[in-house]
Amino acid sequence: MRTVVIGSGSWGTALAQVLQDNHQEVLVYGVAEAEVNDINENHKNSKYFEDVELNPELKATTDIQCVKGADIVLLAVPTIAIDPICHQINDLLDKKTIIINVSKGFHPETNERMSEVIRRCIDEDKLSSVVSLIGPSHAEEVVIRLLTTIDAISLNNEDAVTVQNLFSNQYLRIYTGNDEIGSELGVAIKNVMAIASGILSGLGYQDNTRAALITRGLQEMIRYGVHFGGQQKTFMGLTGIGDLIVTCTSVHSRNFEAGYQIGKENSVENFFKNNTKTVEGVRTAKIVHRVAKENGIDMPICEEVYQILFNGKLPSDCAQDLMIRDLKKEF
Ligand SMILES: NC(=O)C1=CN([C@@H]2O[C@H](COP(=O)(O)OP(=O)(O)OC[C@H]3O[C@@H](n4cnc5c(N)ncnc54)[C@H](O)[C@@H]3O)[C@@H](O)[C@H]2O)C=CC1
Ligand SMILES: O=C(CO)COP(=O)(O)O
C-alpha cells in the first residue's frame, strides 16, 4: 500500500518514519522547503528534532501531485489546515482512499470534529473511511523509537485494522476502536487541560494540584463527551486518561509549555506576542467555551482557561476561584 503523509512537521515526520521502518511505501509532502530538503539531503528534520538521525530511506517532496494513486493519505497538519488541505487533495484522489487523521481539535468555525471535516470535504467515491490515529504520543519520543501505544479509531473496522497492521511494530503498538466521538473529543479537550496544568506549574503549584487537575479535568472531558454521544469507557483509555496524562505531565507538550509560560508570568501577553508553535488547546478552549455554554455543560477548568486566554483574567485568580466554588459531592 502506498501512503502519502501530508505535513513535514514533527508528527508527520515521526509517523512517516514508522512506516519507513516497517518497510512500507511512504512519502512525506510538505509546504516548507527547508523541512523537505533537510529530510532528503541530511536525513534530519532539525527544526523539530535537533539531533535525531532519521531513517535514511525516508523521502519528502513539495509536489502535491504525489497524492495521485495513494491508497492512504495521512493528514499531519494543524486542525486549522485540515479543511483547506482536504479540498486541495480531493481533486487529486483517484480511488477510494483511507484518510488518516492525527490532528487534535475542532474546525475553527463550524466546531466539527476532524473526522466530520474530512467526510464533508472528500467526495464519497474517493473515501474508503476516516481513521484517526490518536493517543498519548509525543513525536519527540516516537522519532527515537521509544515504546508508545495509540489507537486507530474508525467507524470502518476493516480500515482500522489495516492501519493497525501497517503502523504497529516493536516500538509502536496500535489498538483499534470505533468510538469516534468519545475519542476525538477526548484528545481535543485534553489540550485545554494541558494548558491548565502548565499554568498551575508556572504558578508554583506541585504534585497534589496536578493530580487534582488531571482527575477533575477527566470528569469535564467525560461530561462533554457523553453529552455528545461518546462512551464513558473511552475516556478510561488511550484517547482519554492516556493522552491527558502524557500532555499534562510532559516537557514535550507545547500546550503544557504555553501554559507554563502564562502561569510563570501570570499573564498571556508574551505568549500571544511570541508563540510560533502549534498549540491546539488555545483555539479548542474558545470552542469548548462556546459549545459548553450553548449546551449547558459545566466545564469549570476549561472556562477558567478561556477566561485567562481571551478575557484578561489573571491566572492566579483563576486557580483560586476554582477552589472556592460551591462545595459538592465528587460524583
Ligand atoms: N507533535 C506531536 O507530538 C503530536 C501532534 N499531534 C497533532 O498533530 C497535528 C499536527 O501537529 P504537529 O505535526 O505537531 O505540528 P508541527 O507544528 O510540528 O508541524 C505542522 C506542519 O504542518 C505544515 N502545514 C501547515 N499547514 C499546511 C498546509 N496547508 N499544507 C501542508 N502542510 C502544512 C507545517 O509546514 C508543518 O510542517 C496537530 O493537530 C497536533 O495536535 C498529535 C499527536 C502528537
Ligand atoms: O498530542 C500530543 C501528545 O499526545 C502532543 O501534545 P502537544 O500538542 O501539547 O505538544
From TrEMBL:
What pathway, per the record? Membrane lipid metabolism; glycerophospholipid metabolism
Q: Which amino acid positions bind NAD(+), per UniProt?
A: G7, S8, G9, S10, W11, G12, A139, R254, K277
MF (Gene Ontology): glycerol-3-phosphate dehydrogenase [NAD(P)+] activity; NAD binding
Start and end of every Glycerol-3-phosphate dehydrogenase NAD-dependent C-terminal domain? Answer: 179-318
Task: Give the E.C. number(s).
Answer: 1.1.1.94
Which amino acids does the record list as binding sn-glycerol 3-phosphate? K104, G135, S137, K190, D243, S253, R254, N255
> So where does substrate get bound?
K104, R254, N255
Active site annotated at which positions?
K190
Q: Which domain of life is it from?
A: Bacteria
Q: Which UniProt keywords apply?
A: Cytoplasm, Lipid biosynthesis, Lipid metabolism, NAD, NADP, Nucleotide-binding, Oxidoreductase, Phospholipid biosynthesis, Phospholipid metabolism
The UniProt record lists the keyword Transcription regulation = no
Q: Which GO terms describe its cellular component?
A: cytosol
The Glycerol-3-phosphate dehydrogenase NAD-dependent N-terminal domain is annotated at 4-157
Task: Please state what class of enzyme this protein is.
Answer: oxidoreductase
Catalytic activity from the UniProt record: sn-glycerol 3-phosphate + NAD(+) = dihydroxyacetone phosphate + NADH + H(+); sn-glycerol 3-phosphate + NADP(+) = dihydroxyacetone phosphate + NADPH + H(+)
Where NADPH binds, per the record, is at S10, W11, Y48, K104, A139, R254, E280
The record's function comment reads: Catalyzes the reduction of the glycolytic intermediate dihydroxyacetone phosphate (DHAP) to sn-glycerol 3-phosphate (G3P), the key precursor for phospholipid synthesis.
Q: Which NCBIfam families match?
A: PRK00094.1-2 (NF000940), PRK00094.1-4 (NF000942)
Family assignment from sequence similarity: Belongs to the NAD-dependent glycerol-3-phosphate dehydrogenase family.
PANTHER family found in the cross-reference section? GLYCEROL-3-PHOSPHATE DEHYDROGENASE, GLYCEROL-3-PHOSPHATE DEHYDROGENASE [NAD(+)] 2, CHLOROPLASTIC
Query: By what name is this protein known?
Result: Glycerol-3-phosphate dehydrogenase [NAD(P)+]
Organism of origin: Holdemanella porci
Organism phylogeny: Bacteria, Bacillati, Bacillota, Erysipelotrichia, Erysipelotrichales
